[in-house]
UniProtKB/TrEMBL annotation:
This is BolA/IbaG family iron-sulfur metabolism protein. Belongs to the BolA/IbaG family. Pfam families: BolA (PF01722). Coiled coil: none annotated. It comes from Caenimonas koreensis DSM 17982. It comes from the Bacteria. PANTHER family: BOLA TRANSCRIPTION REGULATOR, BOLA-LIKE PROTEIN 1. InterPro entries: BolA, BolA-like_sf, BolA/IbaG_stress_morph_reg. The lineage of its organism: Bacteria, Pseudomonadati, Pseudomonadota, Betaproteobacteria, Burkholderiales.
Length: 82
C-alpha cells in the first residue's frame, strides 16, 4: 500500500480538512484534521480513524499507524501546522 492509497481510504471514511500520511508500506504516521473530532477524546478520535480502516488493521495490511488528530480549531492553533 502507498501513502496515497492510505490517505484515500481515510479520506473516504472521514471528512478531513487536512490529511498527511507518511510511511514505509507497513508502518505509518498521519496528521488528521477533522470536524468529526469535535467533542471527542483522543481514544475516540483514534477509534474513528481505525473504523475507517476496518479489516485492513486486522489483516495486517496496515501493521501500525501512529496519529496526531486535531479539530480544525486545534489545528489552526497548533505548532505542528505546516
Amino acid at each position: 500500500m502507498t501513502s496515497e492509497e492510505l490517505e484515500s481510504i481515510i479520506a473516504a471514511g472521514l471528512a478531513c480538512t487536512h490529511l498527511e500520511v507518511m510511511g514505509d508500506g507497513r508502518h505509518w504516521s498521519a496528521v488528521i484534521v477533522s470536524a468529526d473530532f469535535e467533542g471527542k477524546r483522543l481514544i475516540q478520535r483514534h477509534q474513528r480513524v481505525y473504523a475507517t480502516l476496518g479489516a485492513r488493521m486486522q489483516t495486517d495490511e496496515v501493521h501500525a499507524l501512529s496519529m496526531k488528530t486535531f479539530t480544525p480549531a486545534e489545528w489552526a492553533a497548533s505548532p505542528d501546522q505546516h
